[in-house]
Specification:
The chain is mainly alpha-helical and 255 residues long. The chain contains six helices and six strands. 62% of the residues lie in helices and 5% in strands. Keywords: Membrane, Transmembrane, Transmembrane helix.
Length: 255
């Protein structure tokens, strides 16, 4: 009789496992963690990519030019070109002055965009690590759903803001690629690999954030009625009068 009782208990305990759809919720958290790592990999890829935007003759990275630059970074390039504007206005043709004026505005935007994206990318990296840690503790029965929710939103907002501001400050277009201006206005750059990777990372973070909210609500609701920290169930209790009779409920649903 005890053998059959043991088998009965095992069956009941297996049914008490927490599932999200057909999958054990820990497998779902593992899948979300891999997705977050994938989004983070896209972020790292964007930082390491040498080409973020282009003009008809130049290629620009996050930190400096990929082609046709004589200085190491945008700060030096901005200083060099902007200092030449007033000098050229006095000794050269008007068209040359306009060319340098446009170059000055372009490098000012690229320098500011580099600092902005660096700050937001660093924030995204920190938020990503905390988000993954919260998922690990959540799936090990520590209820940290709201901590994960906060940092999932911060991660998405940080990456989306970083790439958006980079595009705005550099005057980069996603749809057209005009020639370099000859009237002294700010040049419109053409997006390239770095921008695409940064945008893909932000979009993927947003999708994962939505998935986390949905999965987290389901898991949290089910975990609130579970007592055991290791096996995700409260063992069924035997009646003191008749140890062969099991209590109907596997766990207390009112707790």
């Amino acid at each position: 009789m005890s053998f059959f009782l043991l088998i009965s208990n095992i069956i009941l305990l297996m049914k008490a496992r927490i599932f999200i759809g057909p999958y054990d919720h820990r497998c779902v958290w593992l899948g979300l963690s891999f997705a977050i790592i994938s989004a983070f990999s896209l972020l790292i890829g964007s930082v390491l990519t040498p080409i973020w935007a282009t003009t008809s003759k130049n290629q620009f990275g996050l930190y400096t030019c990929s082609t046709s630059c004589i200085k190491d970074n945008y700060k030096d390039l901005r200083t060099l070109v902007c200092n030449q504007v007033s000098f050229i206005e006095n000794i050269s043709e008007e068209s040359d002055a306009y060319l340098y004026q446009s170059g000055c505005l372009m490098f000012e935007g690229l320098e500011s965009a580099f600092y902005i994206y660096s700050i937001f990318a660093t924030g995204t990296s920190v938020f990503t690590i905390i988000w993954i840690v919260s998922i690990i503790t959540f799936s090990s029965r520590k209820i940290t759903y709201y901590c994960g929710l906060l940092f999932s939103l911060l991660t998405f907002i940080s990456q989306a803001s970083g790439i958006s501001l980079w595009i705005i400050f550099t005057n980069t277009s996603l749809v057209e690629c005009p020639d370099f201006p000859d009237d002294g206005s700010t040049p419109i750059l053409c997006e390239s690999t770095g921008v695409r990777l940064g945008m893909a990372s932000g979009i993927l973070y947003g999708i994962i954030c939505i998935a986390y909210i949905v999965v987290g609500k389901i898991a949290r609701k089910k975990l609130l009625v579970v007592k055991d920290d290791v096996n995700y169930f409260q063992p069924n209790t035997l009646s003191p009068e008749n140890k062969n009779v099991t209590v109907k409920k596997v766990w207390n649903e009112d707790s």
